[in-house]
């Protein structure tokens, strides 16, 4: 004998914090932006259980696949505070594709992961539209992703982002410390702002100093919130084009300047027994960094937590430095020779900054 069980609206997925209909609407809103990122190698479209990408192995002699995973970090807290969600997706893409290009890899495709307390279709669409814009800048296809609603773990307006990108590079064209030589020029590429690092410190300063995100501080030409949400510059296409033009005999290594600062990340592409020395007089410390220092951040900490105006560096053969600067600047990335690679005592690898900013 069957027992009829009462149906309760309390025990539904939506009542538990997961709105399937909202998730489907979010996909509809973001679909056009995502489809614009397609490359010829993409097979199928959105909606499958996996993204398919037909790698043309005939194009390569000995292809190596490269992968990178990252997130945006606490910059998202500022996006929530200002209720602006269309730029953090660009930050997300930049964090992974510019890590890929550091070894010379071309970004092929990317997948994102969005965890949120509540799916608000318009907000999710804004985030993913930003991701799609970043992929377009990088030349990578956005082949899929996941939006997870965690209503019992996160506040309704809370979310976090992560992504993984896959790229390809010829085995004999991998860039890195093995190619760097004494006398190489260190070419600096300007950042667009704080990028996506140091925001726990930035937010602490803003809170402690009572800074108004809607006001324009002395030294800046726009509201502080706009300055802090400026998306990360994506260097991938310009860096790949530089290798294509000058060759790996001239372009030896790239360092993506993220957490750890300029010296810490540059040291990662310097071989043992060598030191990269960057001259602070070749560029000006950005006004936003000076603002942080005016409110208590020591210079030493600035140079560890922030990029201080340089988002990527390249180690290039000295006779190629001027050509590299010209090409990068023409591509829209202000660049300059900031230093050189020198021999040093011992077997360790290092990088340091000398002199005083302009």
From TrEMBL:
Q: Which UniProt keywords apply?
A: ATP-binding, Cytoplasm, Ligase, Nucleotide-binding, Purine biosynthesis
Pfam families, A to Z: AIRS, AIRS_C
Span of domain PurM-like C-terminal: 181-345
Q: Which domain of life is it from?
A: Bacteria
Listed EC numbers:
6.3.3.1
Which pathway does the protein contribute to?
A: Purine metabolism; IMP biosynthesis via de novo pathway; 5-amino-1-(5-phospho-D-ribosyl)imidazole from N(2)-formyl-N(1)-(5-phospho-D-ribosyl)glycinamide: step 2/2
Q: Which residues form a coiled coil?
A: none
Cellular location(s): Cytoplasm
Residue ranges constituting the PurM-like N-terminal domain according to the UniProt record: 65-169
The UniProt catalytic activity note for this protein reads: 2-formamido-N(1)-(5-O-phospho-beta-D-ribosyl)acetamidine + ATP = 5-amino-1-(5-phospho-beta-D-ribosyl)imidazole + ADP + phosphate + H(+)
Q: Name the PANTHER family for this protein.
A: TRIFUNCTIONAL PURINE BIOSYNTHETIC PROTEIN ADENOSINE-3, TRIFUNCTIONAL PURINE BIOSYNTHETIC PROTEIN ADENOSINE-3-RELATED
Q: Which family does it belong to?
A: Belongs to the AIR synthase family.
Protein name in the entry: Phosphoribosylformylglycinamidine cyclo-ligase
Q: Which organism is it from?
A: Blastococcus jejuensis
Q: Which gene encodes it?
A: purM
